[in-house]
Amino acid sequence: MKIRAGYDIAFQCSQETPMLLLLSVRPERGADLLTEHRIQLSNEIPSRDYRDLFGNVCTRLVAPAGLLEIRNEFVISDNGLPDEVSPRAEQWPIDSLPDEALVYLLGSRYCDTEKLSQLAWQQFGSIVGGWQRVKAICDYVHSQLEFGYHHARPDRTASEGHQERRGVCRDFAHLAVALCRCLNIPARYCTGYLGDIGVPRDPAPMDFSAWFEAFLDGRWFTFDARHNHPRIGRVVIGKGRDAADVAISTAFGPTQLARFQVVTEVVANVSTDQKLEEAV
Predict the structure, then answer these.
(1) How far apart are the two ends of the chain, measured CA to CA in Å?
(2) Which of 73, 182, 244, 251 is found 20 to 30 A from 93 (Cα to Cα)?
(3) CA-to-CA separations, 268 to 144, 188, 255, in angstroms, rounded
(4) What SS3 state is found at 9?
(5) Local structure of residue 217 (DSSP, 8 states)
(6) Whole-angstrom Cα distance, residue 106 to residue 114?
(7) 152 C-beta neighbours (distance < 10 Å), count
(8) Residue 262: CA count within 13 A, CB half-sphere
(9) Has this prediction a pTM greater than 0.90?
(10) Beta strand ranges found along 42-94 (DSSP E)
(11) pLDDT of residue 276
């Protein structure tokens, strides 16, 4: 399966503003790219990439005063399989976890575990089996929170989402991640592309999506508390402790969002040459 993905984003900058973008596909999907993957900046503004502590590709630039336009469109190959389901995957004891997984047991900016620990152990402490525990957490979060784009609030923590019982996909992910960590299951926040592939089309404008991964049986598994069933065609952009680590843009000065469009769709029966022409 081949997926066309990309974005057309613009910011109005009132002055020269340093910016950090996290809009590149994760390096582990680099071999799947079928066309050029390049962030295009208006007026050929210079930029440079680096890898952050979580292995994400970040882009640094200094935007001049005025309109900054950011575009990218590419085609990527995907196996077309839904998220893996592994009911026998077990939770490892803490002393058996790899060193790099330990940071994903700690509280973070949006995953305020200290406020959710008692709830987590009351609700899920008696559940046997790592996969069954994480699935129970997803079921709980899915049933507790009402999804709606009008519920978006950039400073909402996991405990606040639980209290308010509403949010967007990042709030579902934050609450599930926090509850997993309370139960000593390493969990990390993910963001990227997720189109309406194999499901009814959502009439709302396309956006980036958020989900999470839990560490079970020595590796990371994908979970999605918002949709709460396996999905097809995820293309990861960033992974981190929570949304603070994978913001798609960080401006070190005053900016205003002027345009935001995201595309994620299946490309069917198109030659490679055609895809290359259409994606640039």
Answers:
(1) 20
(2) 244
(3) 38, 33, 38
(4) strand
(5) T
(6) 10
(7) 14
(8) 15
(9) yes
(10) 47-51, 57-63, 66-77
(11) 35
For residues 15 and 46, state if they share a domain: yes
Give yes or no: residues 252 and 223 share one domain: no
From the list 161, 137, 164, the residue with the least C-alpha distance to 225 is: 137
Domain that holds residue 14: 2-79+247-279
Beta bridge partners, 189, equal: 212, 240
The SS3 call for residue 65 is coil
Tokens at 188, concatenated: 């990390």
Question: Over the Cα atoms of the chain, what is R_g?
Answer: 19
Q: Kindly report, residue by residue over 13-44, the tens digit of the pLDDT.
A: 999 999 999 999 999 999 999 999 999 999 99
**pLDDT at residue 92 greater than cutoff 50:** yes
The one-letter amino acid at 22:
L
Supply the CATH number for residue 253's domain.
2.60.40.2250
On whether residue 99 sits in a domain, the answer given is yes
Per-residue pLDDT band at 280 (split at 50, 70, 90): very low
Note the pLDDT tens digit of each residue in 161-202: 999 999 999 999 999 999 999 999 999 999 999 999 999 998
Report the candidate in 232, 168, 147, 227 with the shortest Cα–Cα distance to residue 195: 232
> What is the rounded average pLDDT for all residues in the chain?
94
